[in-house]
Amino acid sequence: MTQKKHWYDYLWIFSSLYLILGFFNILFAWIGLLCFFIPLIIAVFWGRKSYCQRYCGRGQLFQLIGGNFGLSRKKDVPQWMKSKIFRYGFLIFFFAMFFIMLWSTYLVFSGGQDLNQVVTLIWTFKLPWHWAYHGTLFHQGVAQFAFGFYSVMLTSTVLGMLTMILFKPRSWCVYCPMGTMTQLICKAKNHKSVPGCDM
User: Fold this and answer.
1) For residue 164, how many other CB atoms are within 10 A of its CB?
2) How wide is the angle at C-alpha 150 spanned by C-alphas 126 and 71, nearest 5°?
Protein backbone atom coordinates (compact mmCIF):
# COMPACT_ATOMS: atom_id res chain seq x y z
CA MET A 1 0.00 0.00 0.00
CA THR A 2 1.42 3.39 -1.03
CA GLN A 3 1.90 5.75 1.89
CA LYS A 4 0.03 9.03 1.54
CA LYS A 5 2.30 11.94 0.75
CA HIS A 6 2.19 15.18 2.75
CA TRP A 7 3.30 18.66 1.76
CA TYR A 8 6.47 18.34 3.82
CA ASP A 9 7.51 15.25 1.85
CA TYR A 10 8.36 17.59 -1.02
CA LEU A 11 10.69 19.93 0.83
CA TRP A 12 13.61 18.39 -1.06
CA ILE A 13 12.45 20.62 -3.92
CA PHE A 14 13.09 23.66 -1.71
CA SER A 15 16.63 22.49 -0.92
CA SER A 16 17.38 21.87 -4.60
CA LEU A 17 15.90 25.19 -5.67
CA TYR A 18 17.90 27.01 -3.00
CA LEU A 19 21.22 25.77 -4.40
CA ILE A 20 20.16 26.58 -7.96
CA LEU A 21 18.99 30.11 -7.14
CA GLY A 22 22.20 30.84 -5.24
CA PHE A 23 24.12 29.95 -8.38
CA PHE A 24 22.38 32.75 -10.30
CA ASN A 25 21.87 35.33 -7.55
CA ILE A 26 23.84 35.03 -4.34
CA LEU A 27 21.34 37.07 -2.31
CA PHE A 28 18.99 34.09 -2.33
CA ALA A 29 21.45 32.56 0.15
CA TRP A 30 19.72 34.54 2.90
CA ILE A 31 16.72 32.22 2.60
CA GLY A 32 18.91 29.46 4.04
CA LEU A 33 18.64 31.10 7.46
CA LEU A 34 15.28 29.37 7.72
CA CYS A 35 17.19 26.08 7.95
CA PHE A 36 19.01 27.49 10.96
CA PHE A 37 16.25 29.18 12.89
CA ILE A 38 13.31 26.82 12.38
CA PRO A 39 15.05 23.74 13.91
CA LEU A 40 16.18 25.86 16.88
CA ILE A 41 12.73 27.33 17.42
CA ILE A 42 11.13 23.86 17.37
CA ALA A 43 13.73 22.50 19.78
CA VAL A 44 13.53 25.46 22.19
CA PHE A 45 9.74 25.78 22.35
CA TRP A 46 8.61 22.19 21.86
CA GLY A 47 11.68 20.18 22.91
CA ARG A 48 11.58 18.09 19.74
CA LYS A 49 13.74 17.27 16.73
CA SER A 50 10.78 17.09 14.40
CA TYR A 51 12.51 19.35 11.88
CA CYS A 52 15.23 16.75 11.37
CA GLN A 53 12.74 13.91 11.24
CA ARG A 54 10.09 15.48 9.02
CA TYR A 55 10.91 18.89 7.56
CA CYS A 56 14.58 18.73 6.52
CA GLY A 57 14.59 19.04 2.74
CA ARG A 58 18.28 18.24 2.56
CA GLY A 59 17.81 14.91 4.30
CA GLN A 60 14.97 14.14 1.90
CA LEU A 61 17.21 15.04 -1.04
CA PHE A 62 19.91 12.65 0.16
CA GLN A 63 17.32 9.92 0.66
CA LEU A 64 15.96 10.48 -2.83
CA ILE A 65 19.34 10.48 -4.58
CA GLY A 66 21.00 7.81 -2.46
CA GLY A 67 18.02 5.58 -1.76
CA ASN A 68 15.54 5.91 -4.59
CA PHE A 69 18.15 6.40 -7.31
CA GLY A 70 20.54 3.87 -5.79
CA LEU A 71 23.63 6.12 -5.57
CA SER A 72 24.42 5.06 -2.00
CA ARG A 73 26.46 2.04 -0.89
CA LYS A 74 23.98 1.79 2.02
CA LYS A 75 26.72 0.84 4.47
CA ASP A 76 26.53 1.60 8.17
CA VAL A 77 28.22 4.77 9.33
CA PRO A 78 31.45 3.96 11.24
CA GLN A 79 31.22 4.18 15.01
CA TRP A 80 33.74 7.02 15.25
CA MET A 81 31.45 9.20 13.16
CA LYS A 82 28.60 8.54 15.61
CA SER A 83 30.73 9.32 18.65
CA LYS A 84 30.09 12.38 20.79
CA ILE A 85 33.71 13.46 20.36
CA PHE A 86 33.37 13.65 16.59
CA ARG A 87 29.87 15.15 16.54
CA TYR A 88 30.60 17.80 19.18
CA GLY A 89 34.01 18.48 17.68
CA PHE A 90 32.46 19.00 14.26
CA LEU A 91 29.82 21.27 15.80
CA ILE A 92 32.52 23.44 17.40
CA PHE A 93 34.54 23.54 14.18
CA PHE A 94 31.43 24.37 12.14
CA PHE A 95 30.50 27.30 14.34
CA ALA A 96 34.09 28.54 14.44
CA MET A 97 33.95 28.74 10.64
CA PHE A 98 30.54 30.39 10.88
CA PHE A 99 31.84 33.11 13.19
CA ILE A 100 34.83 33.71 10.90
CA MET A 101 32.26 34.25 8.15
CA LEU A 102 30.42 36.74 10.35
CA TRP A 103 33.69 38.55 11.05
CA SER A 104 34.34 38.93 7.30
CA THR A 105 30.82 40.30 6.93
CA TYR A 106 31.46 42.81 9.71
CA LEU A 107 34.70 43.95 8.05
CA VAL A 108 32.87 44.66 4.80
CA PHE A 109 30.13 46.56 6.63
CA SER A 110 32.73 48.61 8.52
CA GLY A 111 34.78 49.36 5.40
CA GLY A 112 37.79 47.40 6.58
CA GLN A 113 37.58 44.89 3.75
CA ASP A 114 36.29 44.86 0.17
CA LEU A 115 33.54 42.52 -0.96
CA ASN A 116 35.00 39.10 -1.77
CA GLN A 117 32.87 37.53 -4.48
CA VAL A 118 33.90 33.93 -3.95
CA VAL A 119 32.29 30.79 -2.57
CA THR A 120 34.58 28.77 -0.32
CA LEU A 121 33.99 25.04 -0.65
CA ILE A 122 34.89 22.79 2.30
CA TRP A 123 36.43 25.87 3.96
CA THR A 124 39.42 25.55 1.61
CA PHE A 125 38.72 25.88 -2.10
CA LYS A 126 37.82 29.40 -3.23
CA LEU A 127 35.54 29.35 -6.25
CA PRO A 128 34.93 32.59 -8.24
CA TRP A 129 31.23 33.42 -8.02
CA HIS A 130 31.13 36.99 -9.33
CA TRP A 131 28.35 36.31 -11.86
CA ALA A 132 25.90 35.71 -9.00
CA TYR A 133 26.12 39.27 -7.65
CA HIS A 134 24.56 42.05 -9.69
CA GLY A 135 24.67 44.89 -7.19
CA THR A 136 21.70 46.00 -5.10
CA LEU A 137 20.38 48.90 -3.09
CA PHE A 138 21.74 47.16 0.00
CA HIS A 139 25.21 47.53 1.49
CA GLN A 140 27.86 45.18 0.10
CA GLY A 141 28.03 43.60 3.55
CA VAL A 142 24.66 42.03 2.81
CA ALA A 143 26.19 40.33 -0.23
CA GLN A 144 29.29 39.32 1.77
CA PHE A 145 27.12 37.48 4.27
CA ALA A 146 25.30 35.80 1.37
CA PHE A 147 28.56 34.57 -0.18
CA GLY A 148 29.69 33.22 3.17
CA PHE A 149 26.40 31.60 4.05
CA TYR A 150 26.04 30.00 0.62
CA SER A 151 29.57 28.60 1.15
CA VAL A 152 28.40 26.99 4.39
CA MET A 153 25.28 25.53 2.78
CA LEU A 154 27.10 24.27 -0.31
CA THR A 155 29.90 22.76 1.80
CA SER A 156 27.47 20.90 4.05
CA THR A 157 25.62 19.65 0.96
CA VAL A 158 28.84 18.34 -0.59
CA LEU A 159 29.85 16.64 2.67
CA GLY A 160 26.37 15.14 2.89
CA MET A 161 26.62 13.86 -0.68
CA LEU A 162 30.00 12.26 -0.01
CA THR A 163 28.81 10.45 3.10
CA MET A 164 25.59 9.53 1.26
CA ILE A 165 27.65 7.76 -1.40
CA LEU A 166 30.01 6.07 1.05
CA PHE A 167 27.44 5.05 3.65
CA LYS A 168 23.65 5.22 4.05
CA PRO A 169 21.68 7.92 2.22
CA ARG A 170 21.10 10.12 5.26
CA SER A 171 24.48 9.62 6.93
CA TRP A 172 24.93 13.40 7.06
CA CYS A 173 22.17 13.48 9.67
CA VAL A 174 24.46 11.59 12.06
CA TYR A 175 26.89 14.49 12.38
CA CYS A 176 24.88 17.47 11.07
CA PRO A 177 25.72 20.44 13.33
CA MET A 178 22.11 21.59 13.50
CA GLY A 179 21.00 18.08 14.41
CA THR A 180 23.62 17.90 17.16
CA MET A 181 22.67 21.30 18.53
CA THR A 182 18.93 20.66 18.53
CA GLN A 183 19.60 17.31 20.20
CA LEU A 184 21.43 19.10 23.01
CA ILE A 185 18.63 21.66 23.33
CA CYS A 186 15.77 19.17 23.47
CA LYS A 187 17.63 16.95 25.94
CA ALA A 188 18.26 19.95 28.18
CA LYS A 189 14.65 21.07 27.87
CA ASN A 190 13.24 17.66 28.69
CA HIS A 191 15.98 16.81 31.24
CA LYS A 192 16.14 13.29 29.87
CA SER A 193 16.38 11.28 26.68
CA VAL A 194 13.05 11.38 24.90
CA PRO A 195 11.77 9.77 21.68
CA GLY A 196 12.99 11.77 18.73
CA CYS A 197 15.90 13.28 20.63
CA ASP A 198 18.44 10.50 20.24
CA MET A 199 20.63 10.12 17.18
Assistant:
1) 24
2) 90
pLDDT digits (tens, 9 = 90+) for 11-26: 999 999 999 999 999 9
Length of the chain: 199
What sign results for the dihedral spanned by CA atoms 17, 19, 25, 28? Answer: positive
Instruction: Assign 199 to helix, strand or coil.
Output: coil
pTM for the predicted model, two decimal places: 0.91
- Classify residue 68 by its DSSP letter: I
Give residue-wise pLDDT tens across range 60-105: 999 999 999 999 999 999 999 999 999 999 999 999 999 999 999 9
CA separation (Å) from 153 to 70, 97, 113, 144, 176?
A: 24, 12, 23, 14, 12
All residues at 6 or more sequence positions from 157 whose CB lies less than 8 Å from its CB, including other chains: 15, 19, 58
The kind and range of the H/E element at 126 are: strand 125-128
Whether the CB-CB separation of 26 and 118 falls below 8 Å is answered with: no
CA dist 173 and 59 (Å) reads 7
Phi, psi of 169 (to 5 degrees): -50, -45
Q: CA 17, CA 170: separation in Å to the nearest integer?
A: 19
One-letter amino acid for residue 86 of the chain = F
